[in-house]
Amino acid sequence: MDRQGTREWMHRGRAIATIAQELQAALPAVIDFMNSTIIPVPPSKVKGNPLYDDRLMQILQRCCPVGADVREWISCRADLSASHENEDRATVAELLDNYQWTGPTALLGRSRIVIFDDMITGGNHFVACRQLVRTYHPEAAVIGVFVSRRILAPDDSWKLDFLNIPE
Length: 167
Hints:
Mean pLDDT is about 85; it is low at about 155-165. The chain has helices spanning about 5-25, 55-65, 90-100, 125-135, and strands spanning about 35-40, 70, 75, 100, 110-115, 140-145. The strands form two sheets. Strands 2-1-5-6 form a four-stranded parallel beta sheet, sandwiched between helices. A two-stranded antiparallel sheet has the order 3-4. It has a single domain, classed as Rossmann fold, CATH 3.40.50. With about 170 residues, the protein is α/β, with parallel strands linked by helices.
């Protein structure tokens, strides 16, 4: 966000558009939009911070069909260091202490929550978000959808079994 007005900013916008276009074609195979609420993992900064980055919402607003239920129901109470800036990543407990639920306690007729993030390393943000969702909606099926710009391993070891990410 601190690169607004630079040449790099143009590349960011192009990347958001490209990712959204790719997801628009792929998401219907994995998300039942009629029965799902999609929640982006919150950025590391609070909304009032000039470094607040809403790229996940921008992507979802572009790639989801009209009428899709996309909500920012999880937010941060305080700024965190971005995961890519630290070798010591926040633990699930630390993230849960900082996350707050801002959504309703009724699912508005939806039975599935999709947590969307743009990278997964250890899965801590997903696990924390899933635990927070289950606190308010224990009956909901919770899945994760993640996008990354590259595969980090040359073989199939990069494939994660999301059903086995620890609680």
